[in-house]
Amino acid sequence: MSFIINLLVSALVVFGLANILPGVSIKGYGSAIIVALVIGLLNAVVKPVLSFISIPVTILTLGLFSFVITAIIILLASAIMGDSFHVDGFWYALIFGVVLAIVNSIIGGMLGD
């Protein structure tokens, strides 16, 4: 049940951010649910691989390169989703990913995860 609640909250945040940020567009709330699922899957599968490969760069940048990895994950999700979810560029993906992570952490903490 917690997975479904987290998915729906993430989809709500994705939908809200897409309406706030000018460089991010989404078709509807159904697409937002799919985007949240795709981002979750990419975070579970691709992000650990990218993090492992980029350990030297992450150490040199004192961990700031992890933000770049987050932006890459968002851009990959945009490429996978096609027309239903689109991010215009790296900076919008970076802002989107950081705000999504912060809001999900806050809401997850309030829900007791």
Automatic annotation (TrEMBL):
InterPro entries assigned to the protein according to its UniProt record, in alphabetical order: Phage_holin_4_2 (IPR007165)
Record keywords, A-Z: Membrane, Transmembrane, Transmembrane helix
Keyword Membrane tagged: yes
Top-level division of the source organism's lineage: Bacteria
Record bears the keyword Iron: no
Segments traversing the membrane: 28-46, 53-77, 89-111
The protein's name: Putative membrane protein
Species assigned in the record: Algoriella xinjiangensis
